[in-house]
Amino acid sequence: MRRYDKTRRRDREELEARLSALQPRNKGRRRRRRSNPGPLVLGLLLIVGTIGALYYVFSAALGGDESAGKPVRIEVAQGDTLSSVAEKLEEKGVIGNAFLFKLEARLSGESAEIKPGRYTFVPGEDDEKIMQKLTSGKAVPTFAVTIPEGLTIEQTAEQVAKHSDITVQEFVNAARSTDYGYAFLQDPAVKTTEGYLFPKRYEFEEGTDARGVVNRLLEQYLIETEGVDFEEAGQRLNLSEHEIVTVASLIEREAATSAERPVIASVIYNRLREGMPLQIDATIQ
Length: 285
Prior knowledge:
By secondary structure, the protein is mostly helical. It has 11 helices and 4 strands.
């Protein structure tokens, strides 16, 4: 029979007594810790400061000097959010990182409602100033011009002069020049930009000069004809891009309705193929 060890019993009782002493005496009444906002505020300030530093570092690293100092135009449409506008700003090189820009704007409480409009920014511009512009709606004043189809340079100049400070002669001089850097104007047969001033409704910032307007119309021609394979069409029809555009202008002037265009086009191309005179009024109009 195993002998009972009184020493071990005393040790156990002493241990239990010590453990009991560590338990809270008033189990029903637990003291509340006094809240101390100091560490929380300090933590938030550190987070905002860190994000700000990261933002400027990323802006410098990603933005680079690609277009430093050159104003960039951003159009904010109705319904655009902070996220979509930040992506536009990053794409245009105004800011270095859209995510960090959004995060800093929200943490600083500046992510209020963004106003639609056309804005001009300089790459590397302070993000606080960017948000002030976007939320105050201080958009750049603009003027709108609608260029109908089939106008000559002089008629287009009159349309532009009606809605801007650009004179008819200023526009005519700019439109008669072909030194805009577009490949389709390098053909020796091209003497002016007539036929390439794409008809459309445009908006321009106030202060845009005649060359700026002409360049925008030429740019639109490039956009609209991006899917046209002029090389294949030229080989098939034995015509240059300038000649194809000229024929298109003749068809546009000669046709009274859209249904007549394929018929007139067929007549013109058949006569060109046969070496016959075109004998249509649009050639002298």
